[in-house]
Amino acid sequence: MTHQTIVVPDIGGAEGAEVVELLVAVGDAVELEQSLIVLESDKASMEIPASHAGVVVELKMAVGDQLSEGDAILVLDTSAAASDNAEAGDQEASSTDQSVVSTDADLASAQRVDEGSEGVADSADPEASAGHAISEQIVEVPDIGTDGDVEVVELCVSVGDKIEEGDSVVVLESDKASMEVPSPAAGEVLELLIAEGASVTQGAALIKLSVTGGSLPAATAIDSNDTAVQTSPPVVAANPAPQVSAPEVSAQPTSPASDDASDLYVGPAVRKLAREFGVDLKAVKGSGPKGRVVKEDLQAYVSQRLAGPATRAVSMGSGIPEVAEIDFSKFGPVRHEERSRIDKVTATNMSKSWLNVPHVTQFDDADITDLEAFRSSLKAEAEQRGSKLSPVPFIIKAVAIALNANPKLKSSLAEQGDVLVYKDYCHIGMAVDTPNGLVVPVIRDADKKSVWALSDEIRELAAKAKDKKLKPDEMQGAVFTVSSLGNIGGRGFTPIVNTPEVGILGVSKASTQPVWDGSAFQPRTMLPVSLSYNHRVVNGGDAGRFLTYLVALLSDIRQLAMN
Which pTM was predicted? Predict the structure, then answer.
């Protein structure tokens, strides 16, 4: 019997994707590329296919679990598939069967060794214990779906701890999610190579582990007599990150996992929530399996503390007063509805941007009378093309031209604000309102596409957004964002800059207004636009030139056609 563990493949940088549906069960026979589970991140849903054919013997996760690249999904018995190939007379499959038999023999031999391990341990014969040689392994940061630094927010082990394969070593936190790094093998912690608060990237050394026996892959093992460390990370990054130097770390316990609360069982999402609330998890009683502290336990604890005397409404270390929780049911009937992941991520990102970016907003009106007349004249051609021409592709085209003429509006800050990164491409984000929340698909190279091409791409991306079918790379790389309220209404608004971009254009509803032409008032179609920008990068002059040029492009369709 040959077992193959199927893991989560590269899912485009998504972290902590939720298992929303299981498509197979224990005992099911699956084919190569057959869908196994459905994952949903804060940006998209995706089905994970089988990388091997076989029979499901064990499920490693359940609906509601959070998975990332490399996490185990299930275990397949692939020997049945190999046997079928052998019966068909396939010579290559026959050789595979031979290796399967050999593997089974090795497993049986290993089982006999385990059964007699007590006698082996007592033996002083070096040859008798040669199969249990002690080796060392450096546990590194695996592929975490981002090239940027992440912070070590918690050490889950200390020197001398004996850990099992899969036990959490550290908790990392990026600007999008927190994640626990599991140990790839069982053993004893020899040395901590990182400290809480340090910033690390993929490939950075975390701990040194002493491993006994053959549980460690040969490529990652370090003989105790060797001086060089050889590692084999699970995923090779395109730009390997350098390892951080090992700081001095105290051997004293630094986390609940290494003190009196060693049995504390808490997931990364709950740990992050506890840090945001400033709650000591050792004071929270877990109600989940094996005493696991779940989100509801933490919420109940916080509610109890808020109801008690002398409640402090100031977040620890933030200096920003919190809004106190209110029991609205005291005033009348209420309903509770869990917010979607997209809603919560959007709220977090907008709060972060509003608190960190000095926003300024400038307003203007574009006379789009001629543009609307030209657009109306193209209705017949649009029908022949099977397309529909709205004002949005004209606006996107005009924004792209104005950005290339004012490149500071598509730059970004880097190196703590000491460097300004100018981008020679022009990818524009387009905010789309969906039933699940606000998402921003990205139109790539908008400056190089015709209005017709932009129209088709805008409608395609908007449809994908509403059906939750956008891929992660279809929402990345924008240099600037356009947020159009279209026919929803409103005469103006102040959109929040989508950091690390430095500008965003708000487009409100066009209306017919009387405009003085020098001798009389004429009815003109006026489009209100508002430009919000990061005042650390863009000053009033930069914004004024950009907005004036944009309004001129929209007001004179001939200028738009000439670019």
Answer: 0.48
